[in-house]
Amino acid sequence: MKKVDYMSVADQVMSQIKKGAFLTVKAGNDLNTMTIGWATIGIVWQKPIFMVAVRDSRYTFTIIEKADDFTVSVPSENMTDEIMFCGTKSGRDLNKFKECKLTIKDSQTIFSPIIDVPGFHFECKIVFKSAMDPAFLTDEYEKLYPEKDYHTLYFGQILDCYEIE
Q1: What CATH number does residue 84 fall under?
Q2: Structurally, how many domains does the chain consist of?
């Protein structure tokens, strides 16, 4: 494990997230991972922030609502099948870790684990969340919500960022 400056890898991470990355969250005994393709990294409130969007209809939403933190694991190797599976199947119905042969590893600073794969890993403490209000969404993006299942945005202060090779 090698500590990295989150901003030095932000462009590379965001490029990969367009293809998919893993958002993992644990609250009590509840644990799930899902694929994210929409996120952002930057500075908010003078802090390093990783913002992720979770649709309220997702099983992960029920867990992250009870959680204090989350991790984002951005694989450096080809995990197209696992990313597709975790983005199309629900943790309500099956164990994604078992089905995809994904192992978890304890985080360095928070409760939610990381996916134990080569790549960049972010440990984030939830500092703010906001449910989307469609009244403020531009009409151009309304087509992204045909089922009206809007996202809640979770702003996580980046407490740790490292690479596993």
Answers
A1: 2.30.110.10
A2: 1
- The distance from CA 143 to its chain's CA centroid, rounded to whole angstroms, is 23
Range of the domain at 135: 2-164
Rounded Cα gap, residues 91 and 154, in angstroms: 19
Residue range 31-78, pLDDT digits in tens: 999 999 999 999 999 999 999 999 998 999 999 999 999 999 999 999
* 125-145 pLDDT per residue, tens: 999 999 999 999 999 999 999
